[in-house]
Amino acid sequence: MKLLLLCLGLSLVCAHHEDNHDIVTSNFDMLKISGEWHTILLASDVKEKIEEQGSMRMFMESIQALDNSSLLIICHKKINGECAELTSICDETEEEGVYSVSYDGYNKLYISEADYNDYLILYLMNSNKQKKTQVTALLARKPDVSTQMKKRFEELCKDHGIPKENILDMANAKTHLVSLWEIRGCWLTVLCSASADPCSHARGSHGAQASSAQ
C-alpha cells in the first residue's frame, strides 16, 4: 500500500513538472520571445487608460529582439477612429528582463513570465507628471488562451492590486447592437455584433497607418 501511494505521489510530481517545465520567469531568451503575439487580456489600476480612447489600449502584433539588446515592438491602436500601427523601441536596462520606453511619459516594461510557444505576461509601470499607472498584458501566440490561463492572469493582477473588474478581454473586443423591428404588430429583436475597435484583429500593415510611439 505504501509503495502504491509512493508511486502515485511520484506520478503527480512528474505530471506537475511536465505541465510547468516550459514556464520561464527569469533569464529570458529574447530570441525565443521574438515573433508574432496576440493581445488576449489587458488590465490596469487606472481602467480608463485601457478603455476606448485610452492611451494604453493597444493590440500587440510582434516583438523583435534587436542586435543591440533592445526590443522592437509593433502594435496597433485606434487614433482618430482609425487603426494606426505604432512602432516602439524598448531599451534594455541594467535589470534583467526590464526595458525602458518613452510613450505617454516614461515607462518601465517588465517581462514577468513566458512560455515561449504559448503565452507571455508583461507588466508596465507608467510615470507621467508624477502620476503612476500599472498596466499588465497577457499575450499569446494564438488568438485565445484557456480559461485556466486567464484565471492565472487574474491572480497575478490581484498581486499588483488590480481588481478583476479592471481586466478587459481584448480577444473579444466587440460591442453588440440591438435593433427592434415591428412586423405586423409583433416586435422582432435583431442582435448584431460589430467590432468596437478597428484594431482588435489588425495584423500586418493592412488597414493600419504607420506611426511611431513617442
UniProtKB/TrEMBL annotation:
PANTHER family: LIPOCALIN (PTHR11430), MAJOR URINARY PROTEIN 1-RELATED (PTHR11430:SF76). Keywords: Disulfide bond, Secreted, Signal. The keyword Disulfide bond applies. Pfam families: Lipocalin. GO terms for cellular component: extracellular space. It comes from Phyllostomus discolor. It is found in: Secreted. Residues 34-171 form the Lipocalin/cytosolic fatty-acid binding domain. Belongs to the calycin superfamily. Lipocalin family. GO terms for molecular function: odorant binding; small molecule binding. Residues 1-15 form the signal peptide. This is Major allergen Equ c 1-like isoform X3.
